[in-house]
Amino acid sequence: MLEELKQKVYEANMALPKYNLVTFTWGNVSAIDREKGLFVIKPSGVDYDKLLPSDMVVMDLNGNKIEGGYNPSSDTPTHMELYKAYPEIGGIVHTHSPWATSWAQAGRGIPCYGTTHADYFYGEIPCARSLTPEEINSAYEKNTGLVIIETVSAKNVMSVPGILCNNHGPFTWGTDAANAVHNAVVLEEIAKMSYRTETLNPAIKPAPQVLQDKHYLRKHGTGAYYGQK
Amino acid sequence: MLEELKQKVYEANMALPKYNLVTFTWGNVSAIDREKGLFVIKPSGVDYDKLLPSDMVVMDLNGNKIEGGYNPSSDTPTHMELYKAYPEIGGIVHTHSPWATSWAQAGRGIPCYGTTHADYFYGEIPCARSLTPEEINSAYEKNTGLVIIETVSAKNVMSVPGILCNNHGPFTWGTDAANAVHNAVVLEEIAKMSYRTETLNPAIKPAPQVLQDKHYLRKHGTGAYYGQK
Amino acid sequence: MLEELKQKVYEANMALPKYNLVTFTWGNVSAIDREKGLFVIKPSGVDYDKLLPSDMVVMDLNGNKIEGGYNPSSDTPTHMELYKAYPEIGGIVHTHSPWATSWAQAGRGIPCYGTTHADYFYGEIPCARSLTPEEINSAYEKNTGLVIIETVSAKNVMSVPGILCNNHGPFTWGTDAANAVHNAVVLEEIAKMSYRTETLNPAIKPAPQVLQDKHYLRKHGTGAYYGQK
Amino acid sequence: MLEELKQKVYEANMALPKYNLVTFTWGNVSAIDREKGLFVIKPSGVDYDKLLPSDMVVMDLNGNKIEGGYNPSSDTPTHMELYKAYPEIGGIVHTHSPWATSWAQAGRGIPCYGTTHADYFYGEIPCARSLTPEEINSAYEKNTGLVIIETVSAKNVMSVPGILCNNHGPFTWGTDAANAVHNAVVLEEIAKMSYRTETLNPAIKPAPQVLQDKHYLRKHGTGAYYGQK
């Protein structure tokens, strides 16, 4: 079942090592079929060079495994909460990509210092609060999703398609699996350049709002004129 | 038309990912045929691995598309202003290369700390001022070109063949497309080494002027003796 | 003799340049056959591109060469002390991998700043004390092993499968040669991210103990639920 | 003439891009035939991917070109002074390798922070003083050599086989061309790790002298026991 979606999720997972976003098995991608209410996710702890499209696990939104010979990623409950909260999300990526993870470990959101950021993320990429001991010790992965939702809440979830989990690492999302991976690559690049920006100018402030607006809206929404649209 | 120039511009664009100067489609190269008064530029938002020489867009210096199935790069008006202002420029590159972009985001020009810099850029590589809200909200890409020209103005444009746009990224130029790419690679390398120089010695001053003169003039002008000239 | 183990140790040594953990010959891997009481180790100073499985040297735990045409690694006495002290250890890696070595040269242990660390190392990765002049000038490599043991002593050796030797570099270990290499890769990645974490937030504290417990125990021990176990 | 030496010098030059020590043509290697009193050096400004063994230029120690269709490297007088001053030197490398050049631009020698350094360089890798305006404006490349010699003077030239030229970049040397390249790779790796060591511990002091002695003498001199000697 869902062979086409499995293939796409497989390819999106394989893109993670290609883009240097993961070491060993430290990442996972999923995507959802909204009509069927089922999502497809990477199995837990399987090496990328042994992974096959048919290894992808099919889950429903109640956390039941519908198909698959392997256990799903241990982060599956996080993905599930995001799919339930945001109908706009079609694909989700989690990695420990080193630059974004360094910001997450520092407990800091990434300010918007320039147009590369503003082209994809409208404003700061937030860092979620730490989970409480109670949240960690019961349904940790589900609570990780709930804290992401708590942080995103007041915003349009697609205008800032990613977040940092404190002391952990990034999650990104998108319209589908490939788009979520695209945003994971962008986040890593932004995290790298923002680190260096701060070293070069410790007093730096975020880019002017008018410039952020210009770049974000040049690529998104009804007035967009970037690309071949 | 301009098949040979399209081929060269295509190759120069393809050199950007080869030299690790771009992620996804974050860059563009153009070159001009001064006799015909036409320039050739990369289309907007097309993946590098799908790009063909025949996809290059031909523009005139009034901003009219003369030939091409795609929209030209959204940065086309910036290129056009530079071609109009400086008859010496034969090719232009824009990237979001990470080291140069970090300086641009920090709002800082790159001081000349050594001979690598002085071999190619005669003095500091300037960072242009921020655009005003009015400049951003009307003809943004054209105004980006005008602010570059305002910054370069008093200098020989070819003696410092590149600039940083505040909160944005670098533009470089040269005698043709390949030479502009060459300067983009040099700028990125200089940006990296200058960052590290400042970390190692926060009190560092620019290299002595006499050394800058020696190295720049060893490679440029009538007294040059570097290479096979 | 021990052809299978030689092959595994060979492959583990060849993985070091593949994972960018060594320059030239700056690393060595060994593994032990506990039943026979013999361990197999890379020869000293032989280029990786000339290395053959049959070049691996067989040693006993008294430091006698049992088989092999080459001298064993000069670090052999360090490996031997660790095998003698810890029956749990099946394989050992020494490298001068650049990020971990930078911490070792700084004389600092690596605090646990996040889940990537906690997934593999339970608490800080310690930096051993400097050897005394006497320890350096007599049986230096053996004393390096003894100082590692002194530092590890109070802990479960497998819960923190690596250490930094002051002004020198890392040693890691594992259940076998491949697992010890795996831990060397993880250590290097953690060393890189922890460096950047401190730059981004100089006041950063280690991750909460409850989060460290959660992640370590999610992957290790009787309650583990990561992967396909 | 000197076909074998040309081949070795060619291969050593081609190793520079392989080891990521040069961008474009920013480096050169030479080697000397002491019996004939002639040295072979890379031509100036020729791309690495067009270079042939037969392009290598043969020079005598008075600066006369003995054979070769190209101009020799513009740094030839620096190489020549070093060959004249130090009969032990068989090969010389100059690069603008980014980490070593960052220290050179910062005007700082590289302290010995650990065993990786001590295995190859006995003590600090010095940074030569700036040239005076007079030295720069007359026989600049020759004077670069003389200032290197002034800095090295009191030491055994082979025990610290490299130096940083202020605001410029590194020179390394060795018993032959390949050995000089080897030392250039080591220098770059040391420069990288020493930078990070200082960031991690701004108060760090050089490694204890007794440890430096141990490691240097473990690999060099009559008591050496590293490798297969």
CATH top level class name of chain A: Alpha Beta
Give the biggest beta sheet of chain A: 7 strands, antiparallel
By DSSP (H or I, 4+ residues per run), the number of helices of chain A equals 8
Overall geometry of chain A comes to globular
Question: Which parts of chain A are unreliable, with pLDDT below 50 for 5 consecutive residues or more?
Answer: none
| Largest sheet: spatial strand order of chain A | 4-3-2-1-5-7-6
Distance between the termini of chain A: 34 Å
Quaternary state of this entry equals homotetramer
- Structural class from helices and strands of chain A? alpha+beta
Calculate the mean pLDDT score of chain A and round it: 96
Q: State the domain count of chain A.
A: 1
Q: What sequence of helices (H) and strands (E) makes up the elements of chain A?
A: HEEEEHEHHHHEEHH
The gyration radius over C-alpha positions of chain A equals 17 Å
CATH topology of chain A: L-fuculose-1-phosphate Aldolase
**For this structure, what is the CATH homologous superfamily of chain A?**
Class II aldolase/adducin N-terminal domain
Beta-strand portion of chain A reads: 5-15%
**Greatest interface and its participating residue counts:** A-B, 27 and 33 residues
CATH architecture of chain A: 3-Layer(aba) Sandwich
Helical coverage of chain A, percent range: 25-40%
Task: Please report the total strand number of chain A as a whole number.
Answer: 7
Function (chains A, B, C, D): Involved in the degradation of L-arabinose. Catalyzes the interconversion of L-ribulose 5-phosphate (LRu5P) and D-xylulose 5-phosphate (D-Xu5P) via a retroaldol/aldol mechanism (carbon-carbon bond cleavage analogous to a class II aldolase reaction).
Pfam families (chains A, B, C, D): Aldolase_II
Domain Class II aldolase/adducin N-terminal (chains A, B, C, D): 7-195
Protein name (chains A, B, C, D): L-ribulose-5-phosphate 4-epimerase
